[in-house]
Amino acid sequence: MTRRPLIVGNWKMHGTRAMLSEARAIDRAAQRNMKVEVALAPPYTLIHPIHREAEQIAVGAQDCHHAEGGAFTGDISAAMVADAGATFVILGHSERRLGHGESDALVRAKAEAALAAGLKIILCCGESAETRAAGKAAAFIKRQLKASLPPPEAMPADVGERLTIAYEPIWAIGTGTPATTEDIAEMHGLIRELMVELFGEEQGREVRILYGGSVKPENAAAIFAVPEVSGALVGGASLTADSLMGIALAASEPFDP
Ligand code: 13P
What we know:
Elements: E1 6-10, H1 20-32, E2 37-41, H2 44-53, E3 58-61, H3 78-83, E4 88-91, H4 94-99, H5 104-116, E5 120-125, H6 129-133, H7 137-148, H8 159-162, E6 163-167, H9 181-206, E7 208-212, H10 217-224, E8 231-234, H11 241-251
Parallel strand pairs: 1-2, 1-8, 2-3, 3-4, 4-5, 5-6, 6-7, 7-8
Helix pairs in contact: 1-11, 5-7, 7-9, 10-11
1,3-dihydroxyacetonephosphate binds near residues 168, 212 and 214.
């Protein structure tokens, strides 16, 4: 596989215009490390300012509404984030599934809307600690992904380019302790099998599978050495150029994206 590793910073609900200097520093550093693709998903309010200045990094949104427009106070459509300069959107993050009651069906509708608006999507999946303790993580992830993704016939022909999966076990997010490399290997392996089953050998192998959950510069190299890890979706450690680019540096060592 010849794809470059992808490192995406999910700023969550962090960042005012004071953070634009950090985004600039990330963009400058990304220009010096062309082995890795770096992208930022800031809050909606910073998409356009970052897009306007960025020369290297892609900018995306952390969510979008499933409708094209209408009486949805406070919501933002896929076309609106694209208009602001976003080229991708993160969908189905556990903080939206749990904090906003987003169902698999809603995530699927959002994915369809985002793809129709020309955006790439990063579709998140992840099991809870209880599901893992019950030995049901693998079955849960397969079911969650199948139910959250549009059916293969509704996906674009270049699905390998347009779709990225992020495996983010809920119990590893924001805890400082990522999943073990054994757990990551098992889950990424089964997600790859599912991608090939759904989208065929060629496109299914192109889909990138990111790991997310307490990725830091100190643990990134070990995670990137795991087969079928194509990069990372980073929360807390994406808020400074130093730590995000420390992770990007670890990804520029040889590994199998
Ligand atoms: P942390 O890197 O802060 O654990 O967050 C991971 C995450 O949720 C990225 O989307």
